[in-house]
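quick q for whoever's on today - can somebody do inverse folding on this one?? i tried earlier but teh output was garbage lol. tokens:
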């Protein structure tokens, strides 16, 4: 078996541009996932708030119980039936963000519940409201505990972003497929694409480890 990477490296700039688009899609989806995850995670902390709790539970059921690819196609091909047409990039960010947000919400909820309830009670005894206790006392500690599982979710998000190529977004996977269509060097192209994804996920993991180390060194958690 003879491997020939020359067609891949001849168009390597297109792969780099695709990697930049992958980072942009992932970053947008990550921001959306964090916002949704925080809101839904907090919303599922108190079952006595019946409406909010059940709305959040339905959201989790829908987005965790159906394949990401199907969700992306619904955003891209389904919304126009309701007179809503979004750019492919926006559909990719929305689909990835809504899907990932369901998993982030459970990470948020678990991290908040892991903080000793006595600290919240102590904050309330000092005159803080429930919101103040959550914002000042609980969340700073919960954030540090969220980082390891969030790191796994963010890495999964980078890898899942390869699916947005099916929405005609010119991401890394899409650019790789264009090279294959011209050069017919599928193995070589996919090996280089896999290496670039590996670099992206490894860099993300290292950054998150550094952030976690700094937060722990700053005494945000015991």
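ok took a stab at it. sequence:
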């Amino acid at each position: 078996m003879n491997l020939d990477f020359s067609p891949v490296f001849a168009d390597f700039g297109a792969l780099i541009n695709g990697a930049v688009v992958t980072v942009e899609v992932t970053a947008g989806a990550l921001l959306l996932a964090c916002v949704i995850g925080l809101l839904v995670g907090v919303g599922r902390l108190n079952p006595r708030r019946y409406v909010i709790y059940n709305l959040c539970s339905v959201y989790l059921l829908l987005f965790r119980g159906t394949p990401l690819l199907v969700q992306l196609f619904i955003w891209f091909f389904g919304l126009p039936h309701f007179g809503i047409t979004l750019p492919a990039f926006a559909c990719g960010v929305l689909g990835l963000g809504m899907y990932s947000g369901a998993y982030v919400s459970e990470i948020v909820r678990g991290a908040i519940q892991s903080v000793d309830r006595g600290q919240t009670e102590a904050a309330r005894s000092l005159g803080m409201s429930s919101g103040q206790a959550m914002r000042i006392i609980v969340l700073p500690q919960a954030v540090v505990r969220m980082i390891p599982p969030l790191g796994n979710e963010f890495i999964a998000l980078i890898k899942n972003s390869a699916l947005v190529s099916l929405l005609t977004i010119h991401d890394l996977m899409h650019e790789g497929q264009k090279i294959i269509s011209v050069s017919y060097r599928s193995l070589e192209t996919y090996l280089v694409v896999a290496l670039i994804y590996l670099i992206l996920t490894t860099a993300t993991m290292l950054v998150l480890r550094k952030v976690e180390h700094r937060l722990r060194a700053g005494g945000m958690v015991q």
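fwiw The mean pLDDT is 89. also The chain has one domain: 5-217. so keep that in mind when u check it
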